[in-house]
């Protein structure tokens, strides 16, 4: 190694955070802490002194009122002063063209010797062409205008978050990463909180890649940006929002939503929703996440079960009679944390169960001692994460976990992570390119991956508009340690029967297919 190469390898990776003030939301504090913990990274705070455009007064009033109603003391948007470990922030003053007010300030700016700069809460235009960093300026964008306001006012089911590297002009911007989150059409603050948490995670991943000289994700085509929402459009949107809220309150007074499971016997592909027959749980109980499993020629359905007034669920099993009727549910597993999604499978002559244990920040695997109701902990496959609906698959000599992993200040709804190992008991290692899907419409698993023809089909939840709204079926095109691809081939939408508002999961064996769904019924 030459002297120049040695100096380059020992040099710290300098990240400039361009902020409008040191008072920043909680998600920025988390980002700063995560960057500060990365070896070889040095944070360079920069306070950009040009005031941000204030926007439409009506939007500011609505946002303030909405914040009063929906904000929580420790949510992702709660603000406090940043404290930096190294040095005082540098102050710059950029005009709308990106030029410094004086040559002395420009020299100070260049002397910062940044590898990458990150725009946080300041306008993009002054940072174009400012030559801030070797790897450019990274900027987060939420929605098509006004940080997701348009999507809330129009009740769009999803809102996009994009990570952009700014060009000298807008037409030269490069979209480095993109994700879709569920829009909260009742609250701008709640919707923005989801977007902010997602954006912080995207920034951290991008900076890690840059620091490690790993190739970036394939660039995405640029999305249209419509700019700020005008006052008239805001007023109309707020009227629509208020009307939606009033209608929802009225519906909740007259109707209630309940979870049930339903069976189709025999199963068909694609699923025929008109042939599903509901299985009613006992009064005061809830059934969800049904997994059919045949053992010794007898059909059993494993389910999440909970009393409607209980804080947590347990797992139960239902034996199905020869006439296709379900028997009584038997409790099989209970823990001091929530259990759901009883993924049951056989490997090497042994039956295993992988329930969702996200509340415990683990993915656990249980071994069957006596089928179907006696289980013992066989190991912890992954720990330290909130992973929902872990689904295992053996493919090409390796075992894979598909799970929806939550980022801080967010629910596990829209980021699919993979883990792989030589066997079902591990040791599992994370996929290098996680998350492989970052889209609330298809990330979260919705059932056992099954073979159709020569392809693996992955059931996936579509959480756009509401939790567990529909099931998408994704054909796995590529699954190997170096890459993952999938493509939608079918879907199962709600609405085939009056009152069916959501279809959450789909599972099948040779004898029957099962779904769980949300059904709306009159209260009186």
Please describe what this structure looks like.
With 524 residues, this protein is α+β, with helices and mostly antiparallel strands. It has 2 domains: 3-229, Rossmann fold (3-Layer(aba) Sandwich), CATH 3.40.50.170; 251-522, Tachylectin-2, Chain A (5 Propeller). 18% of the residues lie in helices and 40% in strands. It contains 7 helices and 29 strands. It has helices at residues 3-10, 26-37, 57-70, 103-111, 149-153, 188-211, 231-254; strands spanning 13-19, 23-25, 41-48, 79-81, 90-92, 116-120, 137-142, 158-165, 174-182, 255-264, 277-279, 285-295, 298-307, 314-320, 326-333, 340-347, 350-357, 362-370, 374-383, 387-395, 398-405, 416-421, 429-430, 450-452, 455-462, 470-480, 483-492, 500-508, 513-522. The chain has a 7-stranded mixed sheet with strand order 5-3-1-6-7-8-9, sandwiched between helices. A 4-stranded antiparallel sheet has the order 11-10-29-28. It has a 4-stranded antiparallel sheet with strand order 12-13-14-15, with no helix packed on it. Strand 14 and strand 15 form a beta hairpin. It is globular. The termini are far apart.
């Amino acid at each position: 190694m030459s002297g120049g190469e040695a100096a380059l390898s020992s040099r710290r990776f300098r990240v400039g955070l361009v902020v409008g003030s040191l008072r920043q939301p909680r998600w920025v504090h988390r980002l700063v802490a995560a960057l500060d913990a990365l070896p070889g990274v040095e944070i360079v705070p920069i306070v950009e002194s040009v005031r941000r455009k204030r926007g439409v007064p009506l939007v500011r009033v609505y946002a303030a009122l909405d914040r009063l109603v929906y904000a929580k003391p420790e949510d992702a948007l709660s603000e406090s002063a940043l404290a930096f470990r190294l040095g005082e922030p540098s102050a710059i003053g950029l005009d709308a063209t990106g030029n410094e007010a004086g040559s002395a300030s420009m020299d100070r700016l260049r002397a910062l010797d940044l590898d990458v700069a990150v725009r946080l809460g300041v306008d993009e235009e002054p940072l174009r062409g400012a030559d801030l960093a070797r790897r450019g300026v990274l900027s987060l964008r939420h929605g098509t205008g006004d940080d997701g306001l348009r999507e809330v006012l129009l009740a769009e089911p999803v809102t996009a978050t994009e990570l952009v590297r700014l060009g000298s002009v807008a037409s030269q911007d490069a979209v480095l990463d993109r994700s879709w989150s569920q829009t909260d059409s009742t609250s701008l603050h709640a919707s923005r909180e989801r977007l902010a948490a997602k954006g912080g995670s995207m920034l951290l991943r991008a900076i890690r890649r840059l620091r490690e000289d790993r190739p970036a994700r394939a660039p995405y085509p640029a999305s249209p940006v419509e700019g700020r929402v005008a006052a008239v459009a805001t007023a109309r949107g707020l009227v629509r929002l208020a009307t939606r809220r009033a209608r929802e309150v009225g519906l909740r007074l007259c109707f209630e939503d309940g979870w049930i499971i339903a069976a189709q016997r025999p199963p068909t592909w694609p699923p025929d929703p008109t042939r599903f027959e509901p299985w009613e749980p006992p009064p005061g109980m809830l059934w969800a996440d049904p997994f059919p499993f045949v053992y010794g020629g007898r059909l059993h359905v494993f389910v999440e079960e909970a009393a409607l007034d209980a804080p947590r669920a347990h797992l139960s099993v239902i034996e199905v009679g020869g006439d296709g009727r379900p028997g009584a549910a038997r409790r099989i597993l209970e823990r001091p944390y929530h259990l759901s999604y009883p993924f049951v499978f056989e490997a090497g002559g042994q039956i295993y169960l992988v329930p969702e244990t996200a509340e415990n920040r683990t993915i656990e695997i249980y071994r069957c001692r006596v089928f179907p109701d006696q289980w013992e902990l066989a190991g912890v496959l992954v720990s330290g994460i909130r992973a929902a609906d872990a689904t295992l698959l053996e493919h090409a000599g390796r075992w894979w976990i598909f799970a929806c992993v939550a980022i801080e200040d967010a629910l596990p709804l829209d980021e699919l992570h993979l883990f792989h190992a030589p066997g079902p008991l591990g040791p599992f290692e994370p996929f290098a390119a996680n998350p492989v899907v970052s889209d609330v419409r298809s990330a979260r698993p919705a059932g056992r991956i099954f073979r159709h023809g020569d392809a693996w089909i992955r059931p996936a939840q579509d959480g756009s508009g509401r939790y567990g709204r529909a099931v998408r079926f994704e054909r796995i095109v590529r699954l190997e340690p170096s890459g993952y691809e999938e493509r939608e081939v079918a879907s199962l939408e709600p609405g085939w029967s009056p009152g069916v508002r959501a279809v959450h999961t789909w599972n099948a064996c040779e004898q029957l297919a099962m779904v769980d769904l949300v059904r709306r019924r009159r209260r009186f």
